Amino acid sequence: MWTFGVAAALLLAAAALAFVALRQNANLFYTPETLAENGVPAAGKEVKVGGWVEPGSLTYPGDGSEMVFSIIDNSPASITVSFTGIAPDLFREGQGVVAIGTFDADGRFTARQVLAKHDENYQPRELRPLGAGPDQNAS
């Protein structure tokens, strides 16, 4: 009976430790709707924001190394993102995106990294002219 009790206590302790560790390391992203409801995280805290790149929002102010775009979801809210660097090949308007960066004191989001999500019909750029893969001007 003692062995069973010690084993149960150790199992509960391991489960509690795993739960706490996983909860602290969860890498979820904020959507525009979540930020509109709960407010912007503290200035300088690194977070992830995600949604879709709003069509017509992508601009390149200045010398072209910086890009500014809006992230939207299924709500009226949006997040304006400023990013300096090379965007992923799959990055484009209307596409899913996750940006990693910080909000400043004025609520502006500056990304240090942009991740683009592709759909299940992705094919390498090199194969597109060959007509390989799905979704080639399908009617």
Account of the protein in words:
The structure is a single chain. The protein has 139 residues and is an alpha+beta fold. It has a domain at 25-116: Beta Barrel (OB fold (Dihydrolipoamide Acetyltransferase, E2P)), CATH 2.40.50.140. It contains 2 helices and 5 strands, in the order ααβββββ. It has helices spanning 2-24, 32-38; strands at residues 46-53, 66-72, 78-84, 96-103, 109-116. The chain has a 5-stranded mixed beta barrel with strand order 1-2-3-5-4. A hairpin with a 5-residue loop joins strand 2 (66-72) and strand 3. It is elongated. The N and C termini lie far apart (70 Å). Mean pLDDT is 82; it is low at 130-139.
Major sheet characteristics: 5 strands, mixed, barrel
| Unreliable stretches covering 5 or more consecutive residues | 130-139
Gross geometry: elongated
Order of helices and strands: HHEEEEE
Derived structural class: alpha+beta
CATH superfamily of the domain at 25-116: Nucleic acid-binding proteins
Tally of separate helices: 2
Strand content: 25-35%
Tell me, what is the CATH class of the domain at 25-116? Mainly Beta
Total number of strands:
5
Gyration radius, rounded: 21 Å
Corresponding CATH architecture of the domain at 25-116:
Beta Barrel
Reported by name, the CATH topology of the domain at 25-116 is OB fold (Dihydrolipoamide Acetyltransferase, E2P)
Widest sheet: strand ordering: 1-2-3-5-4
End-to-end separation in angstroms reads 70 Å
Summarize the amount of helix as a percent range. 10-25%
What does the average pLDDT come to? 82
